[in-house]
């Protein structure tokens, strides 16, 4: 299949009560590993790129990698721009071939967040690109921007309803107590707030800060409408630790052998998440239903 917007795959996932994994790849090899993991178990998948990753490689190489690797796959694949605060940069990604984008204006006052998010939603709709937006601030570090736990705030259910009713989003990211990075203690997830939002908002929800959450937390959030689950920090740690461990254990100075270890570890770890999220076997089973949400 060619690349597609994440909007129909997430709409179906929410309806069927499973989640699509969204994995922050950093290069050709990590993209290839995640896509192979999804192909092996017939799962839809979202490849996410951070702004700094796009700036490092450039727009054209990333889109070329994705088109090459995804075009012959029998599974739905989306290319998504993760947390971006710059509308012009979002437009550059839309023009370059990203099929989904996230506007993160959550640090702004509600009305400004809404205005900026609506503008991106309008641009996305015109280009057939799915849009994600956020309400409330998720703690931790993402895109080199740190949000202290004391400063992070949860999404207000009433505002969340108004926010989602004001535009056609592919997915809505409410802050519910998760955090980017590695959790320093037991995360305090506001399940009551997530449930209050889920009851009144039909838009698929995104769960950010997935690295380090327990299987039980994942399953409960998915049951409450989280159809997109982000995994970033874990992939980055495997990306670096796999080669470091290989060398410490006496690995030879042969780059391709080290890269093979890296590839296998990323593929296996991300595939476990896909299975946990319930997306195994859903690609072929649900593909015909995507047309209802295009």
Radius of gyration: 18 Å
Helix and strand run: HEHEHHEHEHEEEHEHEHEHHH
Euclidean distance between termini CA atoms: 16 Å
CATH architecture: Alpha-Beta Barrel
Number of strands: 10
Polypeptide structure, described:
It is a single chain. With 294 residues, this protein is α/β, with parallel strands linked by helices. The protein has one domain: Aldolase class I (TIM Barrel), CATH 3.20.20.70. Helices cover 48% and strands 16% of the residues. The protein contains twelve helices and ten strands. The chain has helices at 6-16, 28-40, 51-57, 59-70, 87-96, 110-127, 157-165, 191-200, 215-223, 233-248, 255-276, 282-286, and strands at residues 20-24, 45-49, 77-84, 100-103, 130-135, 140-142, 145-147, 171-174, 205-207, 226-231. The strands form two sheets. The protein has an eight-stranded parallel beta sheet with strand order 8-5-4-3-2-1-10-9. Strand 3, helix 5 (87-96) and strand 4 (100-103) form a beta-alpha-beta unit. The longest helix is centred in the last third of the chain and has 22 residues, at 255-276. The model is unreliable at 145-151 (pLDDT under 50).
Question: Short summary of the structure?
Answer:
The protein is α/β, with parallel strands linked by helices and 294 residues long. It has a single domain (6-234, 272-293), classed as TIM Barrel.
